[in-house]
Amino acid sequence: MAEKAARPYTIGDLLRVMARLRDPDTGCPWDREQSFATIAPYTIEEAYEVADAIARNDLDGLKDELGDLLLQVVYHACMAEEDGRFGFSDVVDAITTKMIRRHPHVFEDASLRDAFLTSGTWERIKAEEKAIRGGAAGGDGDEAGSLLDNVPVALPALTRAVKLQKRTARVGFDWPSLAPVLAKIEEEIAELKSAIADEKREGGAAASTKVTEEFGDLLFVMANVARHLGVDPEGALRDANAKFVRRFRSIEAALRAEGRTPEDATLDEMNQLWDEAKASETAGKK
């Protein structure tokens, strides 16, 4: 086993490690056979693990998870360099250039700082970048771009819904307040109930497809509610998941103290234990 270097490793060391792993003759067979497509799922997974470490306030874990995420950037850059497209230094140059360009109030004219958040400068600069990218891609100008272009399809669906809604809100396509959005929830629930009733009557795949569609519409409106409230829907759902896990574990612990498992308990018993766990949490917050 190779010994740890006396000095801390640097980004240069990491780049050399990745190049070694990808070496066609002496590298790792698994690493060598990977592609952008096969590595992309790991990139997404590592980003989630970074977010998880932050949510748990695990700063030691965050250090490791950020390293794992950095490895993904190095991995993609190494493969791109092998293809003769770009290298890691080009990635660093591109993001540094972008951050300087998007913050003229910091790097060019400090007098713009106070008005930055309300001036629309960030959105204008991003739009200019998008137009430049479109031209560089060889567009002929015959097909107009959409305001909703470049909202990544691979984003978590709730996050993407909020981003799509924010984009259209910029041009006035938005509910003026929360009240009509809440009313829309009631409308979507009624449509979902109707689709469920149709499914029971018809018992066919077409009905099931309609139920799925209506359920999706309801989730989309819920994302809109979150946006109007300034709530991160993914974060809210993560918190709800954590609360569910915490309370169900409390049920398991209570039953274990009696020498039982959830399989041995009735639904009424588990609901009672759930209510007790909820009451205990509520009292603890006071």
Fraction of residues in H or I helices: over 70%
Q: Main beta sheet, described? A: none
Average residue pLDDT: 89
Element string (H = helix, E = strand): HHHHHHHHHHHHH
- Which spans have pLDDT < 50 for at least 5 consecutive residues? none
Structural class: mainly alpha
What is the CATH top level name of the largest domain?
Mainly Alpha
Beta content comes to under 5%
Query: How many DSSP H or I helices?
Result: 13
Radius of gyration: 26 Å
Task: Please state the overall shape, judged from the principal axes of the Cα atoms.
Answer: extended
In the CATH hierarchy, what is the architecture of the largest domain at level 2?
Orthogonal Bundle
What is the CATH homology-level superfamily of the largest domain? MazG-like
CATH fold topology of the largest domain: Helix Hairpins
Report on this model:
By secondary structure, the protein is mainly α. It has 3 domains: 11-136, Helix Hairpins (Orthogonal Bundle), CATH 1.10.287; 157-231, MazG-like (Helix Hairpins); 235-285, no CATH class. Helix content is 72%, strand content 0%. It is built from 13 helices and no strands. It has helices at residues 11-21, 29-33, 36-55, 59-82, 88-102, 104-107, 116-119, 121-136, 157-169, 178-202, 205-229, 233-257, 267-285. Helix 1 (11-21) crosses helix 4 and helix 10 packs antiparallel against helix 11 (205-229). The longest helix is centred in the middle third of the chain and has 25 residues, at 178-202. The mean pLDDT is 89.
